[in-house]
Amino acid sequence: xxxxxxxxxxxxxxxxxxxxxxxxxxxxxxxxxxxxxxxxxxxxxxxxxxxxxxxxxxxxxxxxxxxxxxxxxxxxxxxxxxxxxxxxxxxxxxxxxxxxxxxxxxxxxxxxxxxxxxxxxxxxxxxxxxxxxxxxxxxxxxxxxxxxxxxxxxxxxxxxxxxxxxxxxxxxxxxxxxxxxxxxxxxxxxxxxxxxxxxxxxxxxxxxxxxxxxxxxxxxxxxxxxxxxxxxxxxxxxxxxxxxxxxxxxxxxxxxxxxxxxxxxxxxxxxxxxxxxxxxxxxxxxxxxxxxxxxxxxxxxxxxxxxxxxxxxxxxxxxxxxxxxxxxxxxxxxxxxxxxxxxxxxxxxxxxxxxxxxxxxxxxxxxxxxxxxxxxxxxxxxxxxxxxxxxxxxxxxxxxxxxxxxxxxxxxxxxxxx
Length: 418
Fold this sequence. Notes:
alpha/beta, FAD/NAD(P)-binding domain, five-stranded parallel β-sheet, five-stranded antiparallel β-sheet
């Protein structure tokens, strides 16, 4: 049996390694159109900022080490241009045909920006910008797009001494539809000298450097030409077993959609954590198992000018659009006791009035943000109510947290609101 995986980053390599581990008799081949595999793309903004000293630190495995450790063949510069499922063949740009019995499509996503623009999506993008910044003195920069990458890029450039204007045609940050969150982040950005222009993409000032971080879109052209169905999100439609409409063909990662565990709707949320988990399930099922991927609650975290901004589940506006009746509170507290130099932390909780179930949350602060948002993401996964949340036995010690954690304070306030 031969398993072919198209794509050699998070989902693709996870699928390949898991399939080979479960069935060592499988012949597993990964086809990657680029020169590198196992890229930690989320580290690219920190390469630009200077916290990662060399781009090579972002490479998890080389093709050679992956083969040695996982017994999987990885072919770079092997671009798949067509899939003929009736013949079980993948055609490469060189004309070579590669046979498969099972196939995993992990073609990822591509940057949504004008042709020829400077972006930060691939390793090549990161290295080009990294080298450019080493050669130039700081000047004026414009970052177009105020999503995760745009915010990280703006902070990274400001940290290197550049004057930065961040522009976006939308009026909210992080696509959260949360005016209060946007206001908090605006104050943070302006405090660090970053000019923010929302709803004014066409009015960006002249600058020596212009970067586009206007989002991504799933790479589905190859799949669609092979007869693989795409869902309403624009990404590949898959079952909970990561199988497409073509029997024996699976899809995983940023090219595929999944289910939102709060709303039950199909969603496309391109994150490395999700891609790895989807890839593992796709690889297991391609190897003959019957595993499932239940979906996500949409948890993410980004650092903005030294402050962690973490989100999970739905905002009030998103909950309303999903047909819920949301109630919400946002409280300001401290991340630890005041005599241990406790820093400000803001927690927002969103619940459904009809059921009392927690449906969303955000946490903003310098320290402890990841722990608090992970507690809340777990609560969403477990379908906990606000009353359930109030009963959580959270850890306390003065150097780490106040005696009444900000999560519990927010839960108390939301319980009153409900």
